[in-house]
Amino acid sequence: MANSATHKSTQHYTPRASMDWRAWIKGLATFISIACCLPMLMVVFAAFSAETTTLNHLVSSVLTEYIISTIQLSVLVAAGAFFIGVGAAWLVTAYDFPGRRFFQLALVLPLAFPAYILAYAYTHVFDHPGVVQAFLRDTFALGPKEYWFPEIRSLGGAALMLTLVLYPYVYLLARAAFIQQGLRGFETARTLGKGPISAFLAVTLPMTRPAIAGGVLLVVMETIADFGTVSYFGVQTFATGIYTSWFSMDDRAGAAQLALGLLCFSLLLIFLERITRSNEAAYNRLGLSNVPPSSRLRGKKAFVAWCLCFVPFIFGFAGPSITLLIMAVTSFQDSIQSRYLDFIVNSVTLAAIASTITVLAAAMIGYCRRLNPSTYTSTISSIARLGYAVPGGVIAVGLLFPFAAIDNLLDAWMRSVFNISTGLLLTGSITLLILAYMTRFLAAAINAFEAGEVTISKNIDAAASTLGHSSISILWRIHIPILAPSLLTAALIVFVDVMKELPATLILRPFNWDTLAVQAHRLAADERLYEAALPSLIILAIGLLPVALICRQIEKQT
């Protein structure tokens, strides 16, 4: 009888509702994963279902230029980010010099800049009618053709802009790897007669290679996804080709086939990034010290180290910020208009809705994997993360094809049956924009959720379950409060990324629904750089929020 009572009591505290919620959570996670995968599947379908005449025309006209420009840009930016990021990370980690603690944080600040905003600032300074060339002409009485000056609006100029804002990816990962690996191997090589450079190349760099390679691949992913910088500088890449084919040439098939090419490149980068991540785990087991010592630099060496860290900071953040501020103040009366509040409201509305939905979706997927650890749930999570490496233009094209067809079919049916036009219910609203943002930035939210969730013991779940709580109750009443800081960080990162996102917003935004990023792009495209400075500054100010969080984490490490 006692055993029977105990058995009944156990049954009472493991309610049937818990199993029902597990099924619902798993189904919802599956639905989210399919929604994230849909744009990529539709790009493949639309590309292969299009006529080959479009592809033949692309091959004979612009495809070669797109491929060459995209590869050249990726190589230049990857090389620049590697040298700046690794060099700066090694200096602030291994050596002590005046300003070291300041540069540990300051070198991260360029992450707040979208590359296209940096392009606007540097065009104002270095273009032919800009400040620098005008000064040279006035000072030395030179005519337009009597001197040579590097062209900022070029592939090299675009590579420089992207390098200055993307090198912090390499810097952060390289510095974390240097701290984790320690300096004992480097110091041992020094005692065996190797110089500082040869010891670094022979010992330290190979040990941290996976982390650095992962950072470089992230830089390349961001480079191929960029639209604002390359379009403003007139560089023909896959990203600009998709937009041109879709809007300027009204060639949907060509846009889909270009998007497929860019998607293949992105998936290759994902594969390489996963390989480097698995290698990084193996290398990290070789760590020798968590907190490396620092060698004190003095005199000329200290000055050189200071200059090498100051240059990327001044050109990647301080200089452009000051330039934009001066431009904004100069054009203050002309730029502020009553409709400017609408741009801010639209941007904040989109970012707030997208960040909330994205974080909730990440919580569902992460919690589903915790409740049902299996190959299936791991696959769902991996599929949901694919969007982080897929350019916004590709996602936009993949969403427009099916949902435009749905809108047209629904409108035609309503007209024929009820003589009522429904209009564009999906493609004419912000629904697709929110879905595109979720697809693009869900990986960051999942990573933040899972990073916090590993700190919650599964014994807590078991105890709550025996007290009668369902799976959804455990998530809402236990996990969410504990993970609030991690989820807030994820929401803030997604919020800022949405504020900066340009290609997806340009393609999917409803009529007369412009954001700060779209307004800045439009004004800059019309050569109204002074007026473009104000929305650019607002985007920059908001972008500083997640960077401040990153800086706070860096301070905890030092």
General description of the model:
- The protein is built from 26 helices and two strands.
- The chain is an all-alpha fold and 558 residues long.
- The chain has two domains: 191 residues, Orthogonal Bundle (MetI-like fold), CATH 1.10.3720; 269 residues, MetI-like (MetI-like fold, Orthogonal Bundle), CATH 1.10.3720.
- Helix 17 crosses helix 23.
- The longest helix has 34 residues.
- The chain is globular and about 80 Å long.
- The N terminus is likely disordered.
Give a brief description.
It contains 26 helices and 2 strands. It is an all-alpha fold. Helix 2 (16-49) crosses helix 17, helix 11 (209-225) packs antiparallel against helix 14 (252-284) and helix 17 (340-371) packs antiparallel against helix 18.
Would you tell me the structural class of the helices and strands?
mainly alpha
> Major sheet, described briefly?
2 strands, parallel
First and last CA, distance: 62 Å
Overall residue-averaged pLDDT value: 83
Backbone CA Rg: 26 Å
Series of H and E elements: HHHHEHHHHHHHHHHEHHHHHHHHHHHH
Quick tags:
two-stranded parallel ribbon, single chain, MetI-like fold, 2 domains, mainly alpha, disordered N terminus
Q: Secondary structure elements and their pairing?
A:
Layout (H helix, E strand, L loop, with lengths): L1 H11 L3 H34 L2 H10 L1 H32 E2 L3 H7 L8 H12 L4 H10 L14 H27 L2 H8 L4 H12 L1 H17 L2 H5 L5 H11 L3 H33 L10 E2 L2 H32 L1 H4 L4 H32 L3 H11 L6 H27 L12 H23 L4 H9 L4 H12 L1 H17 L2 H6 L7 H10 L3 H29 L1
